[in-house]
Amino acid sequence: MTTTRRLVGGITSSVDLLTVVDRGEGTHRLVLKRWPDSSRGETDAMIEREAGILAALEGVALPVPSLVAVSQPDETDGYPALLMTRMPGRVDLAPRDRSSWIAQMAAALAAVHRLGLEAPVSLPWTPTPEVDMPKWSSRQELWKQADAVLATPAPAERTFIHGDYQHFNLLWTRGRISGIVDWSMGGTGHPDRDVGHCRLNLAVLFSPEWAADFARAYQAEAGRRIDGWWDVYEISRYGQGRMRQTIPIQVGRRAPVDVPGMNDRVERLLADALSTCG
Fold first, then answer.
1. What is the DSSP letter of 37?
2. Looking at residue 192, which CATH number applies to its domain?
3. Amino acid 245: pLDDT
C-alpha cells in the first residue's frame, strides 16, 4: 500500500512524500521528485546530475538523502522522476534561536565544501555575469557598480558545492539540522556561490543583518574570507529573477513574507557586498 502527500515549496519541480507499506508490514517513507513543467532535454540533464550527486554523497558524514531509483518519462507516467530516502525534520523559517540557526547553517556549508568530492561542473544561475539594471530601483548607480565588478575576471577556485544552498533546502529536528536536500545544482564551483546565494535568500526573507551574520559565521568555520566577486554575482541575480513571486510560494504559511520590503533589503545587502570589493 502506498499513500502520497504533496510537500510545500517546490518551484521548478513537484515533490511528494510517499509512505509505502510492504508485504511484511514494514513502513518506508520516501520522497518522489518530478519535473512536470520542464522541457525533456533540461529535465534529463537535471535528473542525471542530481542522481550522480546523490550517489557521490553516499556514505559522507552529513545528513543527505540516498538515491533509491531514477525513472525516465517512458518508464512511468510521462514525467521524469527521482526517488530518494526521506530525511527527518522540517524547514524552519521562524527560528527561536537565530544565532544557533545561522551558525549551524554556516557550519554545514563549510562541511559540504570540505568534502572535496569529484563531480561535474556546476554552472552559475545565469550564463553571463552582466547585470540587468532593475527598472524599479532608484539606486541605479549601485547596480552599475555591481556590473563593473562583474566585468572583471571571475575567481576560478573550485570545490564541491551545493549550488542552491539556502534555508528552504535545510531540514531541522529539535533545533538541529537533520537534512540537506535538493542537490540538483550540485557539482564543482566556487564555494562563495553557495555563500552569496544563501546571503541573498536570507536578505530577501529576513534582513541583510542576518545575511551579514551568516557571512561572519561561515568565514569563521571555513577559515577564509568570502570572495567579493562571487558575493556580488549571486546577490545581483535578484535583479534578473522572480523572487518576489516565488518566495511566497516557497514559504507557504510557515512565516510572514514582507514582499514590499524585499527590494530595499537586497539593495542594502548589495551595497555591503560592494564595499568589500577593492
1. T
2. 3.90.1200.10
3. 86
Residue 118 gets the label, from left (phi > 0), alpha (psi -120 to 50) or beta, of beta
How far apart CA 78 and CA 265 sit, in angstroms, is: 41
What are residue 175's phi and psi, to 5 degrees? 80, 10
Same domain? For 70 and 107 the reply is no
7 within some domain? yes
pLDDT digits (tens, 9 = 90+) for 139-188: 999 999 999 999 999 998 899 999 999 999 999 999 999 999 999 999 99
Q: What is the pLDDT of residues 74-89, one digit of tens each?
A: 665 667 788 999 999 9
CB 275 within 8 A of CB 208: no
The DSSP symbol for 74 reads G
Write down the pTM of the prediction.
0.91
* Domain enclosing residue 247, as ranges: 98-274
Provide the CA 193 distance to its chain's centre, in angstroms: 10
Question: Which uninterrupted H or E stretch holds 111?
Answer: helix 98-114
